[in-house]
Amino acid sequence: MKINLEAMSLKELKELQGQVGKAIASYEGRKKQEAILALEEKARSMGFTLGELVAAAPTRKRKPARAKYANPADSNETWTGRGRKPRWVEAALKAGKSLGDLLI
Q: Distance between alpha carbon 56 and the CA centroid of its chain, in Å?
């Protein structure tokens, strides 16, 4: 099926866009439902329910990291050493300080 998009008005294109969006959502919903049914069947064949397996799945929660470094100019600004360096750390390093100088 070919659609001549060039011949369509803006209103027709927007209607088509809405229909395509609904069709995609419907397709994804059907595929998810099929996957859930397949997983439930597999769990049942092993003597479990899908809910039991999902509830038993271990979840790893990280504690918030403690700050290791503090801004000498403002002790309220701290950094754990994880992730991107804050601007004040970059500035201190450019000024010749080391991370050891910023330790709490």
A: 22
| Nearest Cα residue to 82 out of 96, 61, 63, 65 | 65
More confident residue, 76 or 60: 76
Cα 74 off chain centre by: 32
Instruction: Tell me the pLDDT tens digit for each residue of 35-74.
Output: 999 999 999 999 999 988 888 777 788 888 999 999 999 9
Compute CA 48 distance to the chain's CA centroid, rounded to the nearest angstrom.
Answer: 29
- Closest by alpha carbon to 21, among 32, 10, 29? 29
Closest CA to 80 of 53, 103, 52, 54: 103
CB 102 within 8 A of CB 67: no
Residues 6+ apart with CB under 8 A from 40: 49, 50
pLDDT of residue 13: 96
pLDDT of residue 88: 95
